[in-house]
Amino acid sequence: MKVTLIGAGPGDAELMTIKGLNRLKQADVVLYDRLVGEDIVSMIPDTVEKICVGKHNGKHPVPQEEIGSLMVSKAKQGLHVVRLKGGDAFVFGRGGEELEILCENKIPFEVIPGVSSSIAAGVYAGIPLTHRDYSSSLHIITGHAKKNGQLDIDFKSLAGLNGTIIILMGIASLENICTGFLEAGMNRHMPAAIVENATLKTQRKFIGTLETLFELSKQNQIVSPSVVIIGAVCALSDKLGT
């Protein structure tokens, strides 16, 4: 009886850790999210039971409570359960919440970190998230609004830090995010970027400014999963991107 929580990385199968891949091969059942790359899912042995518990923005075919129940029930059958999550499970992946359920049920677990899309998107877009001449701090926030539609972002504090701001799950709220930073006094010419499908063959990147970013997203019909990057380092993308 055991649950292994694995961060599968941002999508590129070669970014999956060796340790994570080894545990996949040892699993009896794998519960995986929508954002786990198809190439990674194909690495799961045919003898392993595979259960997709994926989520879309605002659509949860398998509720979070049911995911927890599945992990517990499968583990109590004496199985090695792998919970496979996109990116890193502890970076807005609700990994901590799922481990709490395991603790309540006295189920042993292991956690294997993964490459977060918050970091990989910048790398694959040629954007160094920190740079001595541009930014000495990095801030990762969620752009996912609460049920009442309100964003829980301290725009004023972030705008005054002069660092790099990474926003995950922010496409649906992008207009409000950009407006929030502008109203907080951030320079409207601040370089900004969107990286869609980071690390995959379908990756697209768009470089603009805080003022133009929302229009860029509309014109190019950008969809999730996408990472928004705001900060002076975005100006280096054309020079450092491949």
Structure notes:
The structure is a single chain. This protein has 242 residues and is of the alpha/beta class. It folds into 2 domains: 2-112, Tetrapyrrole methylase, N-terminal domain (Cobalt-precorrin-4 Transmethylase, domain 1); 117-240, Tetrapyrrole methylase, C-terminal domain (Methyltransferase, Cobalt-precorrin-4 Transmethylase, Domain 2, 2-Layer Sandwich), CATH 3.30.950.10. The chain is 29% helix and 21% strand. The chain is built from 9 helices and 10 strands. The strands form 2 sheets. It has a 5-stranded parallel sheet with strand order 3-2-4-1-5, sandwiched between helices. The protein is elongated.
Describe the structure concisely.
29% of the residues lie in helices and 21% in strands. It is of the alpha/beta class. The strands form 2 sheets. Strands 3-2-4-1-5 form a 5-stranded parallel β-sheet, with helices on both faces. It has a 5-stranded mixed β-sheet with strand order 6-7-10-8-9, with helices on both faces.
